[in-house]
Each structure stands twice: as structure tokens, then as C-alpha cells.
Amino acid sequence: MTMADSLTSGADQAPQVEGSGILRQVEASNRSAVVLNIQRMSTEDGPGLRTTVFMKGCSLNCRWCHNPEAVSAKEQLVWHQVRCIGSKVCDAVCPEDALARNGELLEIDYTRCTACGECSDQCPSMALETLGRRWQLEDLVAEVAKDRAYFEASGGGVTVSGGEPALRAPFMAQFLERCRELGLHTALDTCGMCSPSALQSLAGCADLVLYDLKEINGDKHARFTGVSNERILANLVELGEQMRHSSLPAELWIRTPLIPGATLSDDNIEGIGAFIAGNVGDVVSRWELCAFNNLAGDKYERLGLSWEFDGTPLLSNGELQHVAEVARGSGVDPDIVLTTGRAQLEGELDGEASKPEAKTAAQADALAVGDTPLKSPAAG
Fold first, then answer.
1. pLDDT tens across 21-67, in order?
2. Tens digits of per-residue pLDDT, 90-99?
3. Which CATH number fits domain 3-9+29-72+133-367: 1.10.240.10, 3.40.50.620, 3.20.20.70, 3.40.50.970?
4. In angstroms, rounded to a whole number, what is the distance separating the alpha carbons of residues 356 and 344?
């Protein structure tokens, strides 16, 4: 029995009551899922050039989330004001009367909107966009397989992210297995807040697991993300055991977002490092310290939400270097620690133009092919 079969065996063994349709509904739900976005040429979600499949729906609600459009499992409608030409064609076709004009602004009544897509289909300038699209399993596999040439040339592959892909474990397990059957390198990007069986099944289909450890203190974790970290830490320990007794996953990377006023503290970094060293130090090959990314404000605005970190500056190179030093002294192998993401450039705050200098391993990689440093991973 494969990992994917283990997640769907309950459906396979369900009583086939004539005319009930229940079994067919379960099987159909495991063969499709709502995907937020397919991002090609990603350099932030594993080795090489990658095609990252972002799923809709998350088990956390991080206050700093860089992908707020991925939190809800449902399709969502958003309006891009900069694209709007004011044709008002889309207003007239809404079957729920959920669109209203307020001067030059378009207001969406999310209590009425069903994200049916009628308005976004009719919008001539693509100012209205439905976030999320249901994909059939084989169609999604075929879509990512188009990028095989880039994977082979760069040592890349396919990454599933979100949101939280483990919330769609049966579908995701089948997807990852199909990718591996095609010879594609696979990676699972997870926050770890899921059932142990879901994580075990998905990790067993992945060459690499990217595992978020955001905050070591349980009370603070609950305050920042909405839930305690107890399950997340326990799942990581179990994942370490799985790696010691199985060939997959072959590699484990830990990722910690450095959020000013939240996770960015010496105590947190020291605590996470001690936990890694004491529980999974023998199987972790990389610990990424992901610099805060301040470019999510527009996403919140389009969803009609406010972001408490709007206007928060990027970290300085000095701050990133200090955090890296703290991490390297926390008990882990110092060689696995690196910082990723963009830091403030010298002269950036006073408006001076200057050519970026490589200050982190990720930026050094980026500057080898161009002058634009990599953006911070979308740590949720």
C-alpha cells in the first residue's frame, strides 16, 4: 500500500450502498483540490529552480502572514484598483448583487459574494480576480511537469506549499507520488499544524521537507498564530524518527521567520536552536532564518483587511548577522545556519541609489545571476 493509498483506504473500504453516491463523492474530493497559485521559477522553496503549488487553506492564522489570500480554503474575489478602467461591465453581471461603486472605488460585500467568477470572467481589464481554482489531479501533475527541463538544468523540482498542504493530504499525497513517478524532485513546505498521519504520509512522498518553527514559547505561539505549538513540535519529533527509519524524506530544512516585535528575539532563536539540537539535530541539514518581508500590505488591502505590520521596515544587515550568530551558538551545527531574504541596503532609508551587495547566502546566489537580491520566503 502506498502513502497515498493509506490516506484513502477508508474510502476504498466504505460500504458501497447502491444509489448512495457517498463513496463516489469521497473519491472525487480526493482527486481535486483548490489551488491558489502555481509559481514558476521559484528560488525560495527548495534547491534549484522550482515550481511551487500554493494551496488554499491554512491551519494557522499568523498575524504577520505574507500570504493572507491563502488562509481561507475557499475561493475569494479581489479587486486590483490599479487595473480598473471603470467599465462597470462586471457590476451588472453579479448574481448576488455583491458589488457597489463608491466614487472611484469598487466595494465587495463578502457576506454576499460567492466567488462564482461571473464578474472576473467579464472584467475587460482583469481588475477583478478570483483567487483559487479547482484542479484535477492529473491536470495539475501535467502542468508542473511542463517545467521538467528547468528542473533538470538547475537541480530543482516541485514544491507544495500554502496555506497548509497537509489539510488536503489525500490529494497532495497522490500528487507528490505522481511527480516522483515522473522522476521529479519533490518538496513539502509545511507549518506542521496537522494530524500526525497526514504529515507522515506526505513526508513519505517528499524528497525534502521544509518545516516552519516560528516561536518556541507555546503561549507566544498561540498569541501570534492562533494555536499552541504543542502539535507542531511533537510532529517534528515524529518526523525525525521517520527519517531515521525510512528513505523518505531524504532531507529536512527548518525555517524560522524573523518578525520584528514577534519572533525576532534572542530567546526565541536560542530556544528553537536548542530544540533542534536536542530532537532532530542529526537529520536537519539546513536552518533558514527568513528575513521579514514588508511587501504584503497590498494583499491585505485587496481583501479588505488591515495588516498590523504595514510600514514595518526591513531588518538591517547587522540585525541579520546578529541573529545568525545567536543561532550558531544555540547548540546546532553552525554550518547549517544561514539567513535568507532581503535586508535594508546601505543608503536605502535616505533614498540614495546604490548597487546591492551580497550580505546573505541567498543574496549571494541571486547576485551571481543579477543585481536584485532574493525576496524573503512567504513565511506564514
1. 443 444 556 899 999 999 999 999 999 999 999 999 999 999 999 99
2. 888 999 999 9
3. 3.20.20.70
4. 10
Extract the C-alpha cell encoding 186: 519533490
- Supply 346's cell numbers: 546601505
| Cβ contact 185:158 at 8 Å | yes
**Ramachandran category for residue 88: left, alpha or beta (phi over 0 → left; psi -120 to 50 → alpha):** left
Placement of cell 539535530 in the chain: 281
The span from the CA of 327 to the CA of 319, in Å, is 12
Domain positions in the chain: 3-9+29-72+133-367, 76-129
**Grid coordinates in use for 286?**
539546513
In 3D space, the residue among 44, 45, 70 whose CA is nearest the CA of residue 300 turns out to be 70
pTM: 0.84
Q: Are 236 and 192 in contact (CB under 8 A)?
A: yes
Look at residues 64, 375, 368 and name the one whose alpha carbon lies nearest to residue 224. Answer: 64
pLDDT greater than 90 at residue 307: yes
